[in-house]
Amino acid sequence: MFYQLLKYIVLGPLLRLVFRPRVEGLEHVPEEGAAIIAGNHLSFADHFVMPAIVPRRVTFLAKAEYFTGPGLKGRLTAAFFRGVGQIPIDRSGGQASQAAISSGLAVLRKGRLLGIYPEGTRSHDGRLYKGRTGVAAMALRAGVPVVPCAMIGTFEAQPTGRRLPRAMRITIRFGAPLDFSRYAGLVDERTALRAVTDEIMYAILQLSGQEYVDVYAGEAKAAAQTEAKARAHGRRGNGDRN
């Protein structure tokens, strides 16, 4: 009920007004049955804009931090994400990754659409980063197609650190479903998981036109932050000497 209220009465119309989304390839999203929608991740707004225009309900795997914030704001944020059907996942790796895969498979077994960002986190600079293999594991175990999706313009509308988005037109582009049945039985093979993931990322790249970086987004973001701190420290040191 809360999901329908947000999608059709409150949030959906507002997002269409702010972003005036141009939608391409929506016919590629299955009208029924389980499937994964795998997209690039450029903005906080991505969580809401794409589900608002897909006729069917899309359940996303969202980072656990959205559900554990302190104070009233944290509780409201958690309630909102649960209300729109987001599932919290721990991104620390290891057993946490297996738990995330299990959560995604539970959604797919119910014949629903699962939304996932293979990069694992938002791009800090607008480029497309290396995909993590969880999306491949879910696709092979559930035997479902993967629909590649590209968000275009959301980075400019609301980059990391910007609280409110700019009002501007964006594009949401869906590609033809990818069939990985030829990899049946290879879900435990790392080379197969990497091959499937890379094929998904290539399809997203073809749709988005982004520059691709063969590094995980989290690692690139951490390196950029370290470099920024080093530059700031150097500037302070030069100021002290002056």
TrEMBL record:
<feature type="domain" description="Phospholipid/glycerol acyltransferase">
    <location>
        <begin position="35"/>
        <end position="154"/>
    </location>
</feature>
<protein>
    <submittedName>
        <fullName>Acyl-phosphate glycerol 3-phosphate acyltransferase</fullName>
    </submittedName>
</protein>
<dbReference type="GO" id="GO:0003841">
    <property type="term" value="F:1-acylglycerol-3-phosphate O-acyltransferase activity"/>
</dbReference>
<keyword id="KW-0808">Transferase</keyword>
<dbReference type="Pfam" id="PF01553">
    <property type="entry name" value="Acyltransferase"/>
</dbReference>
<keyword id="KW-0012">Acyltransferase</keyword>
<dbReference type="GO" id="GO:0005886">
    <property type="term" value="C:plasma membrane"/>
</dbReference>
<dbReference type="GO" id="GO:0006654">
    <property type="term" value="P:phosphatidic acid biosynthetic process"/>
</dbReference>
<dbReference type="InterPro" id="IPR002123">
    <property type="entry name" value="Plipid/glycerol_acylTrfase"/>
</dbReference>
